[in-house]
Amino acid sequence: MIKKILISQPKPLSDHNPYSRLTSQFGVECDFHQLIRIEGLSAHDFRKQRINPLDYSAVILTSKLGAEHYFRLCEEMRLNVPDSMHYYCVSEQVGLYLQKYIQYRKRKVFFPETGNRFEDLLPAMHRRPNETYLMVLSDIHNQDLINMFAENNIEVTPAVMYRTVPSQWPQEKQFDYDMIALFTPAGVNSVITNFPEWKQGETRIAAFGESTINALRDAGFRVDIEAAPGRPFTSLPLAIADYLEKNQ
């Protein structure tokens, strides 16, 4: 019987969310606790990559976090980002977020018109054959994206500017769940780091994403519920609901 589920994400701001529906439909308690946190690299650590951000004419940004840490590091290293810098962003939201740091002009900020596909920016990139690209990344990133640019004859330099690290589990809080929902390999690592002696036993594990599923299996855990793009369930709350409907 599943009574208590750990959702390893921040608690939604609204009560109208997929997890509240799990509570109302199946009577389970959903406890939200983020197992990971983002930590920016110091200027000292970043310099070990032997990358000078000003050697590039364009920056590729996959998230707002990437923008924050790019401008933070440039400030810490006392680098003045030139007005001529171009920005290639995964979405319009990231592009508009740059207004916090630069004078926004469409001719220097590029993003897909629909969706979050860097492939849609390839024509704009090919029109600028002399552009040099710095891609801002986390230590845990999608190599497929870098490969996609390479396959289209666009050379990018990956620059790790922030990292994902385990959050420390509060000592006063028990880790006593009937089900754990994990969304990233870093979340898997956090469980191992915080609870090195923990045995899964009858605890069900729900995982989102192929990389998370693989990380769990590589660590010797049993994956009871799976959701990922291209699978029967692309949403973890829906996959959990299906499991509870069949097993409660």
In terms of per-residue confidence, which ranges show pLDDT below 50 for 5 or more consecutive residues?
Answer: none
What CATH architecture label of the largest domain applies?
3-Layer(aba) Sandwich
Strand proportion: 15-25%
Helix content: 25-40%
Major β-sheet annotation:
6 strands, mixed
Estimated radius of gyration: 21 Å
> What is the H/E string?
EHEEHEHEHEHEHEEHEHEH
- Might you state the CATH topology name of the largest domain? Rossmann fold
Would you tell me the structural class of the helices and strands?
A: alpha/beta
The end-to-end distance, rounded to whole angstroms, is 6 Å
Number of domains: 2
Mean pLDDT: 93
What is the topology, as strand order, of the major beta sheet? 3-8-7-4-5-6
Instruction: Identify the CATH class of the largest domain.
Output: Alpha Beta
Walk me through this protein's architecture:
Helices cover 31% and strands 21% of the residues. The protein is built from nine helices and eleven strands. The protein has a six-stranded mixed beta sheet with strand order 3-8-7-4-5-6. The mean pLDDT is 93. Helix 7 links the parallel strand 9 and strand 10. The longest helix is centred in the N-terminal third of the chain and has 13 residues, at 64-76. With 248 residues, the protein is an alpha/beta fold. It folds into two domains: 4-35 and 167-247, 3-Layer(aba) Sandwich (Rossmann fold); 39-164, Rossmann fold.
